[in-house]
Write a structure and sequence with these properties.
Blueprint: H1 4-13, E1 17-19, H2 42-56, E2 61-65, H3 74-83, E3 87-92, H4 111-131, E4 135-138, E5 143-144, H5 152-169, E6 175-179, E7 189-190, H6 195-205, E8 209-214, H7 224-234, E9 237-242, H8 259-271, E10 282-285, H9 294-313, H10 317-325, H11 329-340, H12 345-354, H13 361-368, H14 370-377
Bound molecules: alpha-D-psicofuranose (PSV) and manganese (II) ion (MN) (2 copies).
Protein name: L-rhamnose isomerase/sugar isomerase
Keywords: Isomerase, Manganese, Metal-binding
EC number: 5.3.1.-, 5.3.1.14
């Protein structure tokens, strides 16, 4: 059995990044349901992220999304974050909310529009320089709705050219995270639809380009942990966007829809000894809380990832290997299931207490009075949301 102290040590080192946009108002294409107390500014989103870190102890970075988090002085924003005990994580680019991008951004047939989109990618590197961020995250909504609408292969060439420009602009310790998504908003063909496309572009770019796996961006039934294992083996897994899906890109709380899948993913991470931050994988959340309270939902998600990780760390690796090598199908499966079926909540509560945290972060948040405070302070109706 794994040494309980080693398990706790690994959990102490775990880091999960929360998304600034998860604190803001969001919705489906049918309706945004605004919530009281939601941040009005990037600073207020960071303040909420700092609260999540305060109660969980393992979420010390917050990802920004530009232009949703546009400010005049990014250095000042980074200092503001540091004063609150967090730092700026990945800089997410946004080339999907501009009239000009109707037919694509970096793959658009119009070179002027491609220039505009690529300039935004380069601007994001300036923001990384100013904030100290190491991760430049790309998700391209680019694609086409009808066969023949544009040339599939030309679009790959245009994509490669834009990626190359951004890559060449990176500093020594900065890198690209290239996210893929099966479909939406394009319905016939998406330019970066799957991990293979992302991986191929990353290989072509070089060592500073890695794949970001958004758990909500696959066809139903996709074996995501296989993708994790494959990319880890190639040294090309850079990050996760964790969230849950039942149908498409639902952006529900991580670990809510399928905690077993989250466990299987985290097991591949543990199997590769890739949990520690020194390994360089950025474990981010990418979620929207449309009908539930946002800060408690993000705390819950962080805890769900932590629970899945704790279970993965409990896998008896020696026993698993022995069973696998003996061809003991049921025995090997049982080793994994024993770990998954362990109730890790008491151990995590103990760990939090040892680290000076409340054993129940959600309850502690509710008791803290922070929600009441932000509802009172942010009552002027200028709440941030998608596009703000
Ligand atoms: C696209 O669906 C995505 O997953 C990308 O990561 C975007 O940056 C994010 O959602 C926007 O919410
Ligand atoms: Mn995402
Ligand atoms: Mn998504």
């Amino acid at each position: 059995m794994p040494d309980p102290n080693a398990v706790k040590q690994a959990l102490r080192a775990q880091r999960i990044e929360t998304p600034s946009w998860g604190y803001a108002n969001s919705g489906t294409r049918f309706k945004v349901f605004p919530q009281p107390g939601v941040p009005r500014t990037p600073e207020e989103k960071i303040a909420d992220a700092a609260k999540v870190h305060e109660f969980t102890g393992i979420a010390p970075t917050v990802a920004l999304h530009i232009p949703w988090d546009r400010v005049g002085d990014y250095g000042a924003l980074a200092r503001y974050a540091r004063d609150l005990g967090v730092t700026i994580g990945a800089i997410n680019t946004n080339v999907f909310q501009d009239e000009d991008y109707k037919l694509g951004s970096v793959t658009n047939p119009d070179p002027g529009i491609r220039r505009k989109a690529t300039d935004h990618l380069l601007e994001a590197v300036d923001i990384m320089d100013a904030t100290g961020s190491k991760d430049l995250k790309f998700w391209f909504s680019d694609g086409i709705n009808y066969p023949g609408q544009d040339d599939l292969r030309d679009r790959q060439d245009r994509l490669a050219a834009a990626l190359r420009e951004a890559y060449d602009r990176l500093g020594e310790d900065q890198r690209i995270l290239l996210e893929y998504k099966l479909f939406e908003p394009a319905f016939y063909a998406t330019d970066v639809p799957d991990w293979g496309t992302s991986y191929a572009h990353c290989v072509e770019l070089g060592p500073k380009a890695t794949v970001c796996i958004d758990t909500g961006h696959h066809a139903p039934g996709t074996n995501i942990e296989f993708i994790v294992a494959f990319l880890l083996r190639q040294g090309k897994l850079g990050a996760f966007d964790f969230n849950s899906r039942f149908y498409a890109d639902d952006d529900l709380m991580a670990g809510a829809a399928d905690p077993f899948q989250l466990f299987r993913i985290m097991w591949e991470i543990v199997r590769a000894d890739a949990l520690d931050p020194s390994h360089g994988i950025n474990f981010m959340l990418d979620q929207c809380h449309n009908i539930e309270a946002k800060i408690p939902a993000i705390i819950r998600s962080v805890l769900n990832v932590q629970e899945a990780t704790a279970k993965a760390l409990l896998v008896d690796r020696g026993a698993l290997r022995t069973a696998q090598q003996a061809g003991d199908v049921l025995g090997a499966n049982a080793v994994l299931m024993d770990a998954y079926n362990t109730d890790v909540r008491p151990m995590l509560a103990e760990l939090r207490a040892e680290n000076g945290l409340d054993p129940d972060p959600v309850a502690a948040y509710h008791r803290s009075g922070y929600q009441e405070k932000i509802v009172a302070e942010r009552a002027d109706g200028r709440q941030a949301g998608w596009g703000a």
